[in-house]
Design a protein that fits this description.
Blueprint (H helix, E strand, L loop, with lengths): L18 E3 L10 E6 L9 H15 L7 E5 L3 H13 L2 E7 L4 H9 L3 E5 L12 H17 L3 E2 L7 H17 L6 E5 L4 H13 L4 E7 L36 E5 L1 H15 L5 H15 L6 E6 L14
Parallel strand pairs: 2-10, 3-4, 3-6, 4-5, 7-8, 7-10, 8-9
Antiparallel strand pairs: 1-2
Helix pairs in contact: 1-2, 1-5, 2-3, 5-6, 7-8
Length: 319
């Protein structure tokens, strides 16, 4: 008889992450923040979930054949998740990434067996601050490699599996872990999959839940405000591009967070809560703190800690 406590591969570890009450960083505030520790996935980010979901949906649909190569544009986290899933399932994986993203991510993907193709940033783009124009250059290279190798394109910005990963799993876990005592959900806009997937599920259970989309203060593209600086520090989102997976009908309102706020709160999370996370996690918690001080006093807010601070040691996040 098979021992179900022993898994057949590390991909089966993905998901079912713990939820923590951030009681120290919220001291003195009316309300609660419940943080889902997505950096405890094997690739140290929530993007492991979509790597697994997209590959398994493609397998079931017959779109991904044995021994076929998988290609994806990534800021590093989706690529890491795909490297893990492709590695254990026997697919070659090519990650195409901007040189503006932190080098730890490229090294980690290579260690996990991925071929990493680094693309130059557009002239004038600071390292560590990837814009939509930078991402467009990466997209061109990813498409070219996909055609040359007759590969399967994971296509995180368009593949419905990105939403399904969070609609079928993350959102359901949030609801169970909080016993449904959620008033607010928020997320930093990356591909839009986490926001849309979780919001759909939570609104299914509680239609009046408020869902906020977090954006860089200097690049509030989705709320339709003027873009002052597309080159912000919050890696993994704020790309100033239309996101097909982002359902704006689910957005209650938008919250804008500065680089400084995201950085400071990420540092506070490490020191006060023992949670070592990246820029976008700092942005999420900064947004939640802002809400508890203003229009959402007394609310129970749920959010994700998106990735690990280990991925940012070459940046100024923890200097």
């Amino acid at each position: 008889m098979e021992n179900r406590s022993i898994l057949s591969g590390v991909h089966q570890v993905i998901g079912n992450t713990p939820m923590v009450h951030l009681s120290r960083i919220t001291e003195g505030l009316d309300g609660n923040i419940f943080a889902k520790l997505e950096y405890l996935n094997p690739g140290f980010s929530k993007k492991d979930r979509i790597g697994l979901q997209i590959i398994e949906e493609a397998e079931k649909a017959g779109l991904l054949k044995p021994n076929q190569t998988v290609v994806e544009l990534t800021s590093g986290n989706t690529g890491t998740g795909l490297a893990i899933v492709c590695g254990v399932k026997g697919y070659k994986f090519v990650a195409v990434m901007s040189k503006g993203n932190s080098l730890e991510r490229a090294r980690m993907m290579e260690a996990l067996g991925a071929e990493v193709v680094l693309v130059d940033q557009v002239p004038g783009s600071p390292v560590g601050q990837v814009s939509g124009k930078d991402l467009a250059k990466v997209e061109e290279v990813a498409e070219q490699i996909t055609k040359e190798r007759n590969a399967f394109r994971a296509d995180q910005f368009n593949h419905i599996g990105n939403i399904h990963a969070h609609e079928y799993h993350t959102g359901e876990e949030m609801w169970r872990q909080t016993n449904g005592e959620i008033d607010v959900f928020l997320d930093f806009a990356g591909s839009g999959g986490t926001f849309t997937g979780c919001a759909k599920t939570l609104k299914k259970y509680k239609p009046d839940i408020r869902c906020y989309l977090v954006e860089p203060d200097s690049a509030p593209f989705y709320s339709g405000k003027p873009v002052m600086n597309p080159n912000h520090k919050i890696q993994g989102g704020g790309y100033l591009m239309n996101l097909p997976l982002l359902d704006k009908n689910l957005v209650t309102n938008y919250i804008h967070i500065t680089d400084e706020e995201a950085t400071q709160v990420a540092r506070d999370l490490a020191k006060k809560e023992g949670i070592f996370a990246g820029f976008s996690s700092g942005a999420n918690v900064a947004a939640a703190l802002k809400l508890l001080k203003q229009e959402e006093k007394g609310a129970n807010i749920v959010l994700t800690i998106n990735d690990s601070g280990l991925k940012y040691l070459s940046t100024d996040l923890y200097k």
